[in-house]
Sequence to fold (333 residues):
Amino acid sequence: MSVISVPHAYNEDELYVDLQPIFGHSLFLKCEGFNFAGSIKLKAAAEMVEAADRKGALTPGSILVESSSGNLGVALSMIAASKGYRFVCVTDSRCNLSTRLLMEALGSEVHVIADPDAAGGFLGARLDYVRALCASDDRYVWLNQYTNPGNWQAHYRTTAPAIARQFPQLDVLFIGAGTTGTLMGCARYFRDRRRRVRVVAVDSLGSVTFGGPPGRRMIPGLGASVRPPMLDQTLVDEVIQVDEADTIRACHRLARRGFLFGGSTGTVVSGAMSWLAGHDARAVTAVAIAPDLGERYLDTIYQTNWIEAIYGAGVLRDDGDAPVQAACPQTAS
Ligand SMILES: Cc1ncc(COP(=O)(O)O)c(C=O)c1O
Fold:
């Protein structure tokens, strides 16, 4: 039994889905969506707020402010509510409606940026907005997930050791890259312990994180229009970029087997499966990280009109998976 008195005290860190039966390659998917914030961002949020508290940066009148594509915003909304702080989330028009409503339900103020910056895209525009808010009133405290070491340290302290404990023979770890907090925390942990784990970063096509040209990206979570300052590419063995159409296909393939995951999980799984298909992976122990679950994406990734408007009508036609047959045995009558 777990008994808690603050919402951030609970997190399921030991749940994996074996994707072999669904995709035909062995991959253990670490599920990070089972906590009250519904995503992996609970860890970064808790670590950053705790560090700010320790440093005395937060006082009863403080207003937390953060730029977030959604999940960090939800986690900070939850923690701010629990600790009695105000929180302002600066997001953009790609933020899911349900994510925005969640933040508001938790008492936060949400500012939605509708116009991307000509050079820095939506992220550049969001960061400019946060800087302007902080300059306007010194009660604002910007944790800044893009530069705050607490972001990657949370994963160094929790996510990576949890994986290392369960998979002492781990060969390959697939991690999606947003701010690169998860990627940097896990990669540093295995590098510092001289564990021969191949760290593969998975990014969305159109993201500039690893130097590719900017392009349209509609799914929040992974990718960036400004290179993440936290990224140290020497810690990354390989990078895979995934087209969002493949993200959609992977999400739907999982959903047809009863696993409703978020968009970045589809991206990471799609990237991991193409990597595994291109290697002799029979004796490889591979883990991938699933940052959240699918409910927040019902009106986007799991909505036919949205998918067809953005990716075209044929996107779901061939995802390589035959429809699942009815489970009931057929009996002659
Ligand atoms: C759904 C989802 N996936 C992936 C990520 C990326 O994680 P990180 O910022 O640690 O790179 C995020 C971060 O916000 C997210 O919300």
The first strand starts at residue 16 and ends at 18.
